[in-house]
């Protein structure tokens, strides 16, 4: 089991303030075809896609799956798969980022029957650029049961242009991002577009 250790507020605030949140731009990144198991049409002639190309004009839910978070990570993955159909109906693409190798991603998708794209952040550059992995405030100082510094489990609802409209992180590992929460933010975004 993983347990959150009550920590100094300044340390926790420092960590949370370093994570990109709503109203910020998601980093401009290229995703290599070979580093993912894709549930989108990846053009044969392209080896890299931008986030905008993966989103295909739709909001995209970017989640982190780090197996070292154990039961919390597995539950989050299960809830995400359970919401795939409804998220698709809302017009939301899904991309999960992980520290697993490509071979392990393929195995995970088959074993858990996952129907969304999963991408390997093998050197943790994406996690670092978002602020989910900090050398200054490693998660090993805040959790019992974690022996190495790994990215925090988090989710970001991002527009095709890279604007983050919602982010979710539960430092205490007690709750999960729900489909209903995503629906509210997507509908608010759609309504604001209509009013322009």
Could you explain how this protein is built, in words?
33% of the residues are buried. A 6-stranded mixed sheet has the order 3-7-6-5-9-10, covered by helices on one side. A two-stranded antiparallel ribbon has the order 1-8. The protein has helices at residues 9-18, 51-55, 71-82, 84-90, 102-112, 125-130, 179-194, and strands at residues 3-4, 30-32, 36-37, 48-50, 60-65, 93-98, 117-120, 143-144, 155-158, 164-168. With 196 residues, it is an alpha+beta fold. The mean pLDDT is 87. The N and C termini lie far apart (48 Å). 34% of the residues lie in helices and 19% in strands. The chain is globular, with a radius of gyration of 16 Å.
Hey, roughly how much beta strand do the residues contain? 15-25%
The residue ranges in which pLDDT falls below 50 over 5 or more consecutive positions are: none
N-to-C SSE series?
EHEEEHEHHEHEHEEEH
Give the overall shape, derived from the CA principal axes. globular
Separation of termini?
48 Å
Helix content: 25-40%
> Structural class, please?
alpha+beta
Which characteristics define this entry?
196 residues, six-stranded mixed β-sheet, 7 helices, globular
């Amino acid at each position: 089991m993983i347990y959150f250790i009550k920590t100094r507020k300044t340390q926790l605030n420092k960590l949370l303030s370093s994570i990109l949140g709503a109203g910020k731009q998601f980093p401009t990144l290229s995703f290599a075809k070979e580093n993912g198991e894709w549930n989108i049409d990846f053009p044969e002639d392209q080896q890299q896609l931008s986030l905008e190309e993966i989103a295909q004009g739709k909001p995209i839910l970017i989640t982190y799956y780090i197996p070292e978070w154990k039961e919390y990570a597995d539950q989050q993955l299960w809830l995400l798969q359970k919401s795939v159909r409804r998220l698709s109906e809302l017009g939301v693409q899904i991309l999960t980022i992980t520290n697993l190798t490509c071979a392990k991603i393929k195995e995970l998708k088959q074993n858990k029957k996952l129907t969304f794209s999963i991408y390997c952040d093998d050197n943790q550059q994406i996690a670092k650029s978002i602020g989910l992995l900090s050398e200054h405030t490693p998660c090993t100082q805040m959790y019992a049961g974690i022996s190495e510094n790994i990215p925090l489990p988090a989710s970001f609802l991002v527009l095709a242009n890279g604007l983050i409209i919602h982010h979710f992180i539960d430092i205490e590992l007690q709750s999960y991002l729900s489909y209903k929460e995503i629906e509210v933010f997507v509908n608010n975004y759609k309504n604001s577009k209509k009013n322009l």
